[in-house]
Design goal:
Elements (H helix, E strand, L loop, with lengths): L1 E8 L3 H12 L4 E5 L6 H6 L1 H19 L1 H4 L10 H25 L3 E4 L1 E6 L2 E5 L5 E11 L3 E3 L12 E2 L1 H4 L8 E5 L3 H12 L3 E5 L11 H15 L2 E3 L2 E9 L2 E8 L4 E6 L1 E4 L3 E3 L6 H4 L22 E3 L10 H15 L13 E3 L4 E6 L2 H6 L4 E7 L4 H6 L5 E7 L5 E8 L2 H13 L4 H5 L10 H10 L8
Helix pairs in contact: 1-10, 3-5, 3-7
The structure holds flavin-adenine dinucleotide and nicotinamide-adenine-dinucleotide.
Nicotinamide-adenine-dinucleotide binds next to helix 7, strand 12 and strand 18.
Length: 468
């Protein structure tokens, strides 16, 4: 039986990053992936393909609706969905091939097959042809990720009632797409098809969309999605049934007053969250415990109840985000090598890749109120930004929350052009415990979207914004 210092089960952003860091630190490392292609949910059916389609659909939308204002006339514009999906597949393939290259470069042994614990130190790999092989490992990292959740009594037939995975491979643009769940997946993939011409209706259980983010962001995003893309929202509606007949799906829902709505569409995207993926992993054979939501239980060092077995990413507690999984992969590898790594979970940014983009880091206003913290706010609207006017991206704002007494920035919440990239400045500033004054006194290039962050900080520290 081949022996390794570390075996990683799962090759998503948690697993492959952990494997690379282990190898860099001198450990003999194996990685097991049940699918032929490495990269996990993120590279194959998550972050990368969804952003490829978001980019393509945004180009189309701008060409159809905004180019004329810029003085660009386009005749005969139409969508070639087949080509759009083919380009997305190419992007995925090149990105996944890159992970194969990185495994070779770092001398990591890749096993393609389903991994399952035989005992604490042995994992069995079942390959596609049914053959089995066992390997032994001093330490193991569980990085098996997550898969889409559903609702009780709803059958996902993967044809008309679909998850994000199928939504990334549709053969036609829906005429009407009903999305269950006003979270990240529903709004990102809803945007893709709305931009391409579909009517999109979102049915959401809570009283707002993107519910875990600062409330102001959800309100503004809802307003813009209605105005720009014609989204319909059914908030505070509980879905009571979904049935598919031939090409038609019927979704029934009920609001808090008991009033019923019935929505007929050609596709229904179920996007109500994801659940940890531990199917046939043999956790019981290794003695690893899970919590009441099926997540692998870990301590503060991401070690399970079994010494030497660690778990990271979507399969453990915390935000289900690729960059959180990556940080945890590095953390565990360095911990195993005797280092003292640290993750500041409060500073894991969250991003929604709609347009305008939404991005957030630190505490929300709702959390600050709950914690009875004294805070001050500063904000700046993109309407007052020359750069945003030049690019016709004036929807949205940046909000900065800072400690009333010390001026330390406690949270930054933005909706606007390129917020996904701009949030990095706020993360770095907060990692160094910057005050709003520190950022307000830092020179920002003109004209740039980031000037709006400086202006929001000026507003937070003494209401001295220059341009508003
Ligand atoms: P995963 O990426 O899920 O990888 C786990 C891997 O383990 C899979 O390849 C699986 O096949 C394998 N595996 C499972 N069990 C076994 C086994 N027993 N043996 C062998 N292999 C096994 N996050 C972001 O941060 N930004 C985004 O823009 C973003 N967009 C997303 C868009 C969509 C449509 C979806 C669905 C998700 C998106 N996410 C995004 C979330 C992100 O994909 C996940 O948080 C991330 O992939 C989690 O990484 P992971 O390594 O924990 O698990
Ligand atoms: P989510 O948790 O973001 O949103 C699910 C939504 O469904 C919530 O608003 C919830 O209130 C609603 N919901 C739940 N039950 C419902 C019901 N019965 N009827 C109506 N609404 C209901 O989950 P998601 O959008 O499926 O995304 C899954 C995970 O993938 C998230 O954790 C997210 O972090 C990750 N993801 C991240 C990105 C990104 O970072 N840009 C993109 C896509 C996915």
């Amino acid at each position: 039986m081949e022996k390794f210092d570390v075996t990683v089960i799962g090759s998503g952003p948690g697993g492959y990053v952990a494997a690379i860091r282990c190898a860099q630190l001198g450990m003999k490392t194996a990685i097991i992936e049940r699918y032929p292609s490495l990269g996990g949910t993120c590279l194959n059916v998550g972050c990368i393909p969804s952003k490829a389609l978001l980019d393509s659909s945004e180009h189309y939308f701008n060409a159809a609706h905004n180019f004329t204002t810029h003085g660009i006339e386009v005749k005969g514009l139409k969508v070639n969905l087949e080509q759009m999906i083919a380009r997305k597949r190419d992007v995925v393939k090149i990105t996944c091939d890159g992970i194969n290259f990185l495994m070779k470069k770092n001398k990591i042994t890749v096993f393609n097959g389903h991994g399952s614990f035989v005992n604490k130190n042995t994992v069995e790999i079942t390959k596609a042809d049914g053959s089995k092989e066992q390997i032994e490992s001093a330490k193991t990292i569980i990085a098996t990720g997550s898969k889409p959740s559903s609702l009780p009594g709803i059958e996902i037939d993967k044809k008309r009632v679909i998850t994000s995975t199928e939504a990334l491979e549709l053969q036609e643009i829906p005429k009407h797409l009903v999305v269950i769940g006003g979270g990240v997946i529903g709004l990102e993939l809803g945007s893709v098809y709305a931009r391409l011409g579909a009517k999109v209706s979102v049915v959401e259980f809570m009283d707002g969309i993107i519910g875990t983010m600062d409330k102001g962001l959800g309100k503004e995003l809802q307003r813009v999605l209605k105005k720009e893309l014609g989204f319909e929202f059914y908030l505070k509606h509980k879905v009571t049934g979904v049935s598919a007949k031939k090409n038609e799906v019927t979704v029934t829902a009920e609001n808090s007053k008991g009033e019923k709505v019935e929505l007929k569409s050609d596709y229904c995207l179920v996007a109500v969250g994801r659940k940890p993926y531990t199917d046939n992993l043999g956790l019981d054979k290794a003695g690893v415990k899970t919590d009441n939501r099926g997540k692998v239980e870990t301590d503060d060092h991401l070690q399970t109840n079994v010494p030497g077995i660690y778990a990271i990413g979507d399969v453990v507690k915390g935000a289900m985000l690729a960059h959180k999984a990556e940080e945890e992969g590095v953390f565990v590898a360095e911990l195993m090598a005797g280092q003292k790594p640290h993750i500041n979970y409060n500073l894991v940014p969250g991003v929604v890749y709609t347009w305008p983009e939404v991005a957030s880091v630190g505490l929300t206003e709702e959390q600050l109120k709950e914690q009875n913290k004294k805070y001050k706010t500063g904000s700046f609207s993109f309407k007052a930004s020359g750069r945003a006017r030049a690019s016709m991206d004036t929807d949205g704002f940046i909000k900065v929350l800072a400690d009333t007494d010390t001026d330390e920035v406690l949270g930054v919440h933005m909706i606007g052009p390129r917020a996904a990239d701009m949030i990095a400045e706020a993360v770095i500033a907060m990692e160094y415990r910057a005050s709003a004054e520190d950022i307000a006194r830092t020179c920002h290039a003109h004209p740039s979207f980031t000037e709006s962050f400086k202006e929001a900080c000026l507003d937070a520290t003494g209401k001295r914004s220059i341009h508003m």
